[in-house]
Amino acid sequence: MPAPRTTAHAVVVGSGIGGLTAAVALRQRGWEVTVLERAHSLEPVGAGIGLAPNSQRALDVIGLGDEIRDLAAWQGPGGMRNPSGRWLSRTDSAAAAERFGGPLVLVHRATLIDRIVRRLPEGAVRTGCPAELADAGTAGGRPARVTTPDGDIEADLVIGADGIHSAVRRAIFPRHPGPVYAGFTTWRTVVPAPEQPFEPHETWGAGALWGTQPLKDGRVYAYAAAVAPPGAHAADDEQAELLRRFGDWHDPVPGIIAAAEPGRLLRNDVHHMTTPLPVFHRGRTVLLGDAAHAMAPTLGQGGNQAVEDAVVLAHHTGDGQDLGAGLAAYSAERLPRTTAIVRKSAQVARLMSLTGRPAVAVRDTLLSAVSRLGPGVVLRTFDGIADWHPPRRTYAAGAQDAHTGQGGREGRPARH
């Protein structure tokens, strides 16, 4: 007969960036953690991700921030262009770093996933293991329970990190409408860098945009978006579709499309949560990332907010804190912030989605006029977002850490 467990156990459903970060952060706060992933491997779906200073500071909490900053590739100028190549607005990496306390870092998702997983013990992540929430539990009593092909697992805490179409969210908020189609689709790929140097840019056209961003390993992360009916796909292949839509745009866009491997071009419709959840938790079950607040990618904050969620959740639920109060504090802290960013992302998406010539001309004129006021004006879009800092440990926790000399990592949360 196995010995009774004395360390509180958290189960994370989903092994995306937010779920894995939560697993590491919770483990550092004394939890035993198991990550359940439906897929048979951790090969991430996606090509690249932009990590802004806010998520880098969140990654500092798990000891990963400096590793990520070392991967920064954007040096010098960049900005927004129109399809002919004319610059609509200009900024540079130094101005962004000075304003927000760090660089924007573009990394391949596989790189980020690998760096996070290295901080988990072997066996903590179980792939090929779909999980369903059978019981959300009660904060003051009954444990939560998930069902897997290998049997049921009871947990002191279940974290739904299972993405936009989260089954955990549907289980605890069955009447919530969930995410809705944002009106456009996206493409993403990673290709070798073109021979001719280029300045990082995002190019806006009529109901479409294209982004070309360098990676530290010498490759380029390229992404595109266009207004399209939901569920649409190219009759031939997505590379041909990109050539039809963007093949006459400025260099290096046509060359990057030509270099893309059709089988590695990812196309996904965009869905976002225009109706926020009332809270992010029920009983012993909590949501983070896209499961809690799916947003349009137009501010590049989806993954960043998931990382923020993870460290804030660990902050409020570690070191023997009352679970019910901790989950309530997590919801109270994260819900207003993420709701505001979902709405702001939707506003930017509406600007990108303009298709009429007069409206596009007005938009581009305004972007150019704002840019002439200086790079700081353009960067103000991210004020209150990229300058975020993670919550600090309390004085009592800091004193305990000093006494143990373990930085809080070996403290065990009580079973609630």
How would you characterize the overall build of this protein?
With 416 residues, the chain is an alpha/beta fold. The protein has a domain at 9-76 and 105-179 and 277-352 and 377-404: FAD/NAD(P)-binding domain, CATH 3.50.50.60. 35% of the residues lie in helices and 23% in strands. The strands form four sheets. It has a seven-stranded mixed beta sheet with strand order 5-4-13-14-15-12-16. A six-stranded mixed beta sheet has the order 7-2-1-11-18-17. Strands 8-9-10 form a three-stranded antiparallel beta sheet. A hairpin with a 5-residue loop joins strand 4 and strand 5. Helix 1 packs parallel to helix 10 (302-317) and helix 7 (238-246) packs antiparallel against helix 8. The longest helix is centred in the C-terminal third of the chain and has 30 residues, at 323-352. The model is unreliable at 394-416 (pLDDT under 50).
Can you describe this structure in just a few lines?
The protein has 416 residues and is α/β, with parallel strands linked by helices. 35% of the residues lie in helices and 23% in strands.
SSE diagram, text form:
Elements: E1 9-13, H1 17-28, E2 32-36, E3 48-51, H2 53-60, H3 65-69, E4 77-81, E5 87-92, H4 93-100, E6 105-108, H5 109-117, E7 125-126, E8 132-135, E9 144-148, E10 151-155, E11 157-160, H6 167-172, E12 180-192, E13 201-204, E14 208-214, E15 219-227, H7 238-246, H8 253-259, E16 266-272, E17 281-282, E18 285-287, H9 290-293, H10 302-317, H11 323-352, H12 357-371, H13 375-379, H14 395-404
Parallel strand pairs: 1-2, 1-11, 2-7, 4-13, 11-18
Antiparallel strand pairs: 3-6, 4-5, 8-9, 9-10, 12-15, 12-16, 13-14, 14-15, 17-18
